[in-house]
Automatic annotation (TrEMBL):
GO terms for biological process: potassium ion transport. One of its GO terms (molecular function) is monoatomic cation transmembrane transporter activity. InterPro entries: NAD(P)-bd_dom_sf, RCK_C, RCK_C_sf, RCK_N, Trk_Ktr_HKT_K-transport. Pfam families: TrkA_C (PF02080), TrkA_N (PF02254). PANTHER family: KTR SYSTEM POTASSIUM UPTAKE PROTEIN C, POTASSIUM CHANNEL PROTEIN 2-RELATED-RELATED. Gene3D superfamilies: NAD(P)-binding Rossmann-like Domain (3.40.50.720), Regulator of K+ conductance, C-terminal domain (3.30.70.1450). This is Potassium uptake protein.
Length: 219
């Protein structure tokens, strides 16, 4: 059965909200948006299902887009903590099942959680942490979960090149698991014991954050 596409309301079309809205639209979801700045709203008109020029922190704006009929809402307001809090509170009152909200500080995030945001995003902090793992190392991408577990995309350490995963015995030596290998010009393949690693390959590796960092630091 195909996955049901969702109706999503995005409040605030700044860099965060705008990027989320366009990607959701590309994925086929029905995206409605509220943006206070007419010039910014004009940039998205015709690219989303509906764009309303209004103050997203006001209940009247939510009524205009029938916010209560949406499956999800994303609050990307970044110019005012007060406006962000009011928008989340009004969305919660409207009964939207899932509310995602951008926070500009840890304190802001705690308030958003208390008043109804189901997921709070700290884009600057999360991006900064992610970049710190990527700078100067062999990691090409990095995703860390709350429980100290990470999945990374990385170039292979020298000791793995020219050997199969069984021969390298990475899991026993380092406590991490190679879950996939991507060779240039070829499709991604799930890792098998007989998968041979080449120098130009990209590895997808999962495991505890500390052990992932130790493995990625190998020459």
């Amino acid at each position: 059965m195909p996955k049901r596409l969702a109706t999503v309301l995005v409040v605030g079309l700044g860099r965060f909200g705008g990027a989320a809205a366009l990607e959701l639209n590309r994925l086929g979801h029905q995206v409605h948006a509220i943006e206070k700045d007419p010039a910014v709203a004009a940039e998205f008109t015709g690219r989303l299902r509906r764009v309303v020029v209004a103050d997203g922190s006001r209940p009247a704006a939510l009524d205009e887009v029938k916010a209560g009929n949406c499956d999800h809402a994303i609050v990307g307001i970044g110019f005012s903590v007060e406006a962000s809090v009011l928008a989340v509170a009004n969305l919660a009152d409207a009964g939207i099942p899932t509310i995602w909200a951008k926070a500009m500080s840890p304190e802001h995030g705690r308030i958003l959680s208390r008043i109804g945001a189901h997921r709070v995003i700290h884009p600057e902090a999360e991006t900064g942490s992610r970049v710190a793992h990527l700078v100067g190392g062999r990691m090409l991408d990095y995703i860390e979960f709350d429980d100290g577990f990470a999945i990374v995309k990385m170039s292979p350490p020298q000791e793995t090149i020219g050997f199969t995963l069984a021969q390298s015995d990475i899991r026993r030596k380092y406590g991490v698991t190679v879950v996939g290998v991507k060779s240039a010009g070829r499709d991604f393949v799930h890792a098998q014991p007989d998968t041979k690693v080449a120098g130009h390959d990209t590895l997808i590796v999962s495991g505890p954050t500390v052990l992932i960092e130790r493995f990625a630091a190998r020459p």
